[in-house]
Amino acid sequence: MSGCTIWETPGGEHLGSYIMPIQIVRKTKSGLDYIGTVLRDKQSVVTRAVFWRVPHRQTNKEDIGLKIGRYTRLSFNRETLQATDPKSELTLDDEEFRKLLQFISENYEPFRAHETKYLPLDDSLDDNNLTHLRAIFRSPNKQQLLRFIVEHSILPDDLLAAVQNQQRIKTIGEFETMLRDNLLEHDWQRWFAKNDWILGSDFVRVVVDERAIDTKNIADYLVQAFDGFLDIIEIKRPGGALRFWAPSRDHENYIPSSDLIKAITQANAYIFELERELNSQKFIERVGGVRTVKPRCVLVFGRSYNWNDNERRAFRILNASYHNLSIMTYDHVLGRAKRIVGLPADDNAYVNDDDIPV
Questions:
Q1: pTM for the full model?
Q2: Radius of gyration of the chain from Cα atoms?
Q3: Quick one: 135 and 50 in the same domain?
Q4: What digits encode the pLDDT tens for the residues 144-191?
Q5: Are 184 and 46 in the same domain?
Q6: Which helix (H) or strand (E) holds 65?
């Protein structure tokens, strides 16, 4: 008799479906349940492992024992996996078996990886250990903590990269939740300031302490671009009554809504005013010495998850008409962020980076 079993590795990767014999729990002459397997079958010796279920009638509990033995082939019954003439045999009771399992799970992979010192991490870490670990990683001096971790090789590079990637995946989940919650613009301003990586690799950092270009023009973010110069990011809330396209088309062409035109006009005004400050020593000091040369602006406006091909084509044409302004929807931002961390993204919700001029 056979059945279908899905095999998985300890890391969770599916190896595929295989036909394998159904495992049958048998009974000994004294009525104990057991199940066994052959670990190695040599010409004269068979190595066997057997699980035993030992009930305790007085406590209504049961233990699982493990017996491992080597037996002469002549004394070994392959059908029942029982033997009468062990060359060597070891039986572990329930407590010993559980400790063996714990020992293997905690130490096999590090030992195989040639680690010489390591700390097994599991649910057995007590509150004092967890408190101590949290205190270390909550150090207010983040740069000093990072230098300490790198200099002493406390965390391997692949783990550091995995931690950052998992944090970014969590951030993307927050982003999707916020899109459903229809939040106000100031909520998005705070969130983007804390998670500026999601805006892409064109920007090195947000100049957090200074948003004002002058007394009349205050951008959402003044940012240092990858080339070292000052740029602008302007965002509008994704929901509410703001529309990306006008309700009616012109000669079958999609055209920007009045809301989008107002946002574009505001962004261009910011660019103009920022250029006027390029030689202002006072302004340069306010933005931490970041210089202004041909500033550009990224405008994040509206949604695009339900656009059709004609709307995506119109977006491409619209963006191509500006040389210092790039328009992105919140779904473009979301799609690019998902690709950065290796998550699948809806092809209809975003465009390629090449479609977004910079």
A1: 0.57
A2: 32
A3: no
A4: 877 887 777 777 777 777 888 888 899 899 999 998 887 888 888 888
A5: no
A6: strand 61-72
